[in-house]
Amino acid sequence: MRAIFNDRPYVSLEDPDRREFATDDPRGFLGQFSQGAILDEVQRCPDLFSYIQGHVDRKGRLGEWVLTGSQQFGMMSAVTQSLAGRVGMLALLPFGLSELKAVQKVPETLDQLLWKGAYPPLYDRPVEPAMWYGSYVQTYLERDVRQLLDVRDLTLFQRFLRLLAGRTGQLLNQSALADETGVSHNTIREWTSVLEASYIIHRLPPHHRNFNKRLVKTPKVYFLDTGLAAWLLGIETAQQLATHPLRGALFETWVVSEYLKARWNRGLPSNLSFWRDRSGREVDLVIDKGVKLRPVEIKSGATVSRDAFRGLERWCELAGTEATKPTLIYGGTEARVQRDIEVLPWSDLAADASYAGAC
């Protein structure tokens, strides 16, 4: 924000002196900035939002105040109470592959990328992923999120997080998750909703068009960062990930998150779903492009077997003229067209996700 709006004053409300000024004298604090400002960690002063509303309503200038914050719940509660209808919201997930490529920070191998994840602090400072994720889970998930949910038994919440990480890329069975965690179904529903609202996980809905087949109606759950999921699964190195039974699920998680980032970075809602019928035939992603539907299959292996194409081919038969550009993303290195299906290596995903996100 400081680079984009370099003509604006920047104030971090993490600074105790600035925060005290903003809290004790909000009119005087905002009066310093006749042309607006960037207010960082603004959730630390929730009362400030009502005074910003007054400024916005009096002057009527668009984009005068740029408000940023790292704590989703404080930001959203204040915005919905005071600034509803007066703000444009942009959710920024961890770095996308295109961003890492732009600064030549892409890890050398796919396993390193999946294990390390894409949170910014891991790329702009010398910190070990395991140490950073441990601190992140303790300070954010186990403190902020747990306090918001009023979770009294930390052990149960920790168990829930690890069990949920083990289900990334799978159908979300909340009853089974409740039984294994040792809490009620309603508690699991509340916990997953808050994790989704804080952009830790994403529930991918099933595709709604029937194609004359009985379809699965349960959403899938995906972590929005594979590094966090890998840490919760106890994966300590990229070498361990190479032979881990959930490597395929983590690769699928990463691909889904890349397509989501391409949409959300443009301020657009998700246009993604998945398709699965009661017989077990499925397509990992269906991208809704308005008048056309684009199916995407995801395989983590470095080679592609004949069976990998069957789900796409069957779906295209059912979709008929609605289908366009079937694509298979895999863990190899060669791009080609095979059986009328575009086969793309993981390293080409950035360009494809950007194309899909723009449509």
Topology:
Blueprint: E1 10-12, H1 16-24, H2 26-31, E2 38-40, H3 48-59, E3 66-68, H4 72-82, H5 97-102, H6 110-116, H7 121-124, H8 129-149, H9 154-165, E4 170-171, H10 174-181, H11 185-197, E5 201-204, E6 220-223, H12 226-232, H13 238-242, H14 247-264, E7 272-276, E8 282-288, E9 293-299, H15 310-319, E10 327-330, E11 336-338, E12 341-345, H16 349-358
C-alpha end-to-end distance: 26 Å
* Rg over C-alpha atoms, rounded to the nearest angstrom: 22 Å
H-E order: EHHEHEHHHHHHEHHEEHHHEEEHEEEH
Largest beta sheet, briefly?
A: 6 strands, mixed
The total tally of domains equals 2
Q: What percentage of residues falls in helices of 4 or more residues?
A: 40-55%
Global shape: globular
Low-confidence stretches: none
In spatial order, strands of the major sheet run 7-8-9-10-12-11
Q: What percent strand? A: 5-15%
Sheet/helix structural class: alpha/beta
| Helix count from the secondary structure assignment | 16
What value does the average pLDDT take? 89
Total beta-strand segments: 12
